[in-house]
């Protein structure tokens, strides 16, 4: 006699979406209240946020936002660009690597403790193929998924749900996501200045470096995709 799995409550099924919705409601409401109270234009409000990031606590605030990002569905690309623009190419890269990989571990931990591995047994197509590969060869598969730019949070949650070894996951994530992180940090670092007044400088060397790394990354990802397709056809 088989027993059906226990039915999860509405909160258990949708807690992350509800948490994200609540956060965004508070954030948007707080923004309008603060702007109204201080009579700030949108550009002036953005300027204050940038100045806050440039303060002594700016680095901690930036990394803290990155760590919360998986819970609130905040775009990682936007944060990475902001890190390069506010902190520069060197410190922006350091802070972003810390924040991005920290956020990957947050999403991994959520998937590990709240996910249900049996939910993935009926997956088909591309994801199912990577699920099987993750179970057989976790390190190389995680790094491959990073290099070919599969959705960042999808990989994080999937690795956690499948109970992938966290050390292999973290090292593969650091190595595999580094080219993409460097690309967008350099792109952000190529534009510096006071954006609220449309007064900013352009760094052609940082911009050129970003483009070169991006082209190389795309080339490598296409080569890896063709190799994967050839393996699947064999």
Plain-language structure description:
27% of the residues are buried. Strands 1-2 form a two-stranded antiparallel ribbon. It contains nine helices and two strands; from the N terminus they run ααααααααββα. The N and C termini lie far apart (42 Å). The longest helix is centred in the middle third of the chain and has 39 residues, at 76-114. The protein has one domain (59-233). It is mainly alpha-helical and 234 residues long.
List keywords for this structure.
single chain, 234 residues, mainly alpha, two-stranded antiparallel sheet, 9 helices, 3% strand
Give a short synopsis of this structure:
This protein has one domain (59-233).
What order do the SSEs take from the amino end to the carboxyl end, as H and E?
A: HHHHHHHHEEH
Side-by-side strand order of the widest sheet? 1-2
Return residue spans where pLDDT drops below 50 for at least 5 consecutive residues. Answer: none
Report the helical percentage. over 70%
What would the principal axes of the Cα set say about the shape? flat
What portion of the residues fall into strands of 2 or more residues?
under 5%
Distance from first to last alpha carbon:
42 Å
Largest sheet, described in full?
A: 2 strands, antiparallel
Structural class, from secondary structure content?
A: mainly alpha
How many domains make up the 3D coordinates? 1
Overall pLDDT metric: 79
The count of strands amounts to 2
Helical run tally: 9
């Amino acid at each position: 006699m088989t027993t059906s799995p226990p039915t999860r409550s509405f909160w258990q099924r949708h807690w992350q979406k509800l948490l994200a919705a609540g956060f965004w409601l508070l954030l948007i409401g707080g923004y309008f209240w603060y702007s109204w109270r201080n009579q700030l234009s949108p550009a002036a409000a953005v300027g204050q946020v940038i100045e806050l990031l440039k303060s002594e606590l700016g680095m901690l605030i930036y990394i803290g936002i990155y760590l919360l990002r998986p819970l609130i569905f905040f775009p990682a690309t936007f944060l990475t660009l902001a890190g390069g623009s506010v902190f520069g190419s060197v410190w922006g890269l350091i802070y972003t690597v810390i924040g991005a990989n920290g956020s990957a571990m947050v999403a991994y931990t959520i998937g590990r403790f709240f996910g249900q591995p049996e939910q993935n047994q009926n997956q088909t197509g591309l994801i199912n193929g990577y699920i099987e590969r993750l179970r057989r060869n976790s390190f190389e598969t995680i790094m491959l998924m990073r290099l070919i730019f599969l959705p960042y949070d999808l990989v994080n949650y999937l690795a956690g749900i499948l109970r992938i070894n966290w050390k292999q996951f973290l090292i593969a994530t650091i190595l595999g996501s580094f080219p993409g992180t460097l690309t967008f940090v350099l792109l952000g670092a190529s534009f510096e200045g006071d954006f609220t007044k449309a007064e900013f400088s352009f760094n052609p060397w940082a911009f050129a470096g970003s483009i070169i790394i991006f082209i190389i990354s795309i080339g490598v990802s296409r080569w890896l995709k063709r190799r994967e397709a050839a393996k699947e056809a064999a």
